Amino acid sequence: xxxxxxxxxxxxxxxxxxxxxxxxxxxxxxxxxxxxxxxxxxxxxxxxxxxxxxxxxxxxxxxxxxxxxxxxxxxxxxxxxxxxxxxxxxxxxxxxxxxxxxxxxxxxxxxxxx
Length: 114
Hints:
By secondary structure, the chain is an alpha+beta fold.
């Protein structure tokens, strides 16, 4: 059994470039977008958030072995809770590749093919 949180094919879409990128450790561990916390703190202080979050959430499976967004839609709660509960779930997956920090999903795919 494996978890999407440990897989190199876990990807997020960058809002600016629209490219699918590596999921950062904070999202893998906490389920939260890097700018999400600062945005929540700005809102709590009564200010409009200055920055948009970096990534479209929830993450996706780069090789489409799992429907992470569809699974997140079935979980209630905040986005970080939904993401964490789905990507930390143990599952059988024949496409799993161990996450190598610093490598994009595309690089994981290339390394897996060789």
